[in-house]
Amino acid sequence: MTQRAEFAASVQPLPLPDADRLKLDTAAIDAVRLRGAAMEPRAGAWQEGVVRLLNAALATELVCALRYRRHHHTAQGMASPKIAEELLVHANEEMAHADRLARRIVQLGGQPDFSPKTLAARSHAPYDDSLDLKTMLAADLSAERVAVEIYGQLVALIGTRDPTTRRLLEDLLGQEQEHAEELEGWLAA
Ligand SMILES: [Fe+2]
Ligand SMILES: [Fe+2]
After folding, report:
1. Is the pLDDT of residue 4 over 70?
2. DSSP state, 156?
3. How many domains does the chain divide into?
4. Ligand at shortest distance from the CA of 57
5. Non-local CB neighbours of 161 within 8 Å, separated by 6+ positions
6. 120, part of any domain
7. How far from each other are the two terminal CA atoms of the chain, in whole angstroms?
8. Rounded to two decimals, what is the model's pTM?
9. What digits encode the pLDDT tens for the residues 12-33?
10. Buried b (16+ CB within 10 A) or exposed e, 142-176
11. Ligand 1 centre and the CA of 93: distance in Å?
12. What is the CATH number of the domain that holds 163?
């Protein structure tokens, strides 16, 4: 090979072994187009089931918001004013989670259930009215772990069928994990 030919070969673009795989699945696209706006016969029942599960999560968030708020006020006169303030931050974040769940329930055609009559029974995590800070924090950590478990299960149940609800649940799952880690830190301090 002459020097010029060698140079020409060296400036050739490198082969891209993965480039052939950059193709859309046209059969899947055709299938979606053919389905058009047709609803699955069981879509209504599935959606109702999702709303029922989201309402249980909503009840859990509301009970968590109440428990944290109560803990914030009770802990205020205690040794750790900073933790008392953080408990209020958690209370407000759980309330924001409740609002996001309620919004999604309405988008799915359901009714968000805020009834105080049945709230405690519908919540996955209990209320807590203990008096010492350590017991309060332990109750909060336990509830956060329950929330992590619920959202993990819900994400798995929704699968790929409802990406909007799934993204919401994944987001809440991440925030509950952060809450749990914070509580573990405060308890260990
Ligand atoms: Fe929450
Ligand atoms: Fe939380």
Report:
1. no
2. H
3. 1
4. 1
5. 46
6. yes
7. 72
8. 0.81
9. 666 666 777 889 999 999 999 9
10. ebbbbbbebbeebbeebeeebeebbebbbebbebb
11. 7
12. 1.20.1260.10
